[in-house]
Amino acid sequence: MQGTIDGFSYGLVTPLVAYLMACLGGALGLRCTTRSMLVSRSWRPGWLALGSAAIGSGIWTMHFVAMMGFTVKETPIHYDKAMTFASLAVAIVMVGVGIFIVGYRGARGAALFTGGTITGLGIASMHYLGMAGMRLDGKLEYNTFTVAVSVVIAMGAATAALWAAGQVRGLLWSVGASLVMGLAVSGMHYTGMAALDVHLHGTGAAATGDSPAALLAPMLVGPLAFLVLAGVVVLYDPKMIMGRPAGAPVEHKPGVPAHPTVPHQARRPALRTRRTTGSRGPRTPQNH
Known about the structure:
68% of the residues lie in helices and 6% in strands. The protein has helices spanning 13-36, 44-67, 81-105, 109-132, 144-165, 171-194, 212-221, 223-235, 238-242, 261-286; strands at 5-6, 71-72, 78-79, 134-135, 138-142, 196-200.
């Protein structure tokens, strides 16, 4: 027997809150990625790690807030806690790999494509691993084509967001990138949910695991507390507001000469010395 799925049991409340969570995590993570491009290599890993954790926590929180509105009318839903938190770890690690590639190689060319692809796959992996932690009296089946579309959406939008973060053009630019990242996570989530069918066993056996309400508390206390902390770090960093370095560091800036005036200053005194030496030779006999 096929179960009756309702993904919006609370109306538009859960989709909107979930989208805001994804945007919050994306905004903090992408700003940290931007900041990493404005500092020396010794500080770069810390900013990239903070950005990875922020984005991973944001998309994980988005997923399970959205799942609060997901019900199957014929059976209760529970979640396996270990599988649920494993999806958080996968999200942070895979998103981190993509962000570190862009942070060190730049948001262009093969580095951008590779980083965006891995980040998008991290978003998709988090979603389907989280769905694998669902416990109910039935079997989950997916439409292969729709699943593929959801993964492509995640990779494409994640690539666009990382490209925007790499432009280093100020706060508003990064806010726009975070909206794209939120769209990537939300679009991927609901496209993936559209691919889902539930076939009930009809045994009436009670599912094991925690209820959605029991999982809500750690989701709010843990990842949201981290997002608030990351937000404080970002807001109190003055260079994050400007979106450009105060000292204009020149390391790893393709196409920009490091110190263009130094060679000219070194050559001009040499030219003047030659003219002075050459002009004194003929003047000396004329003054006898």
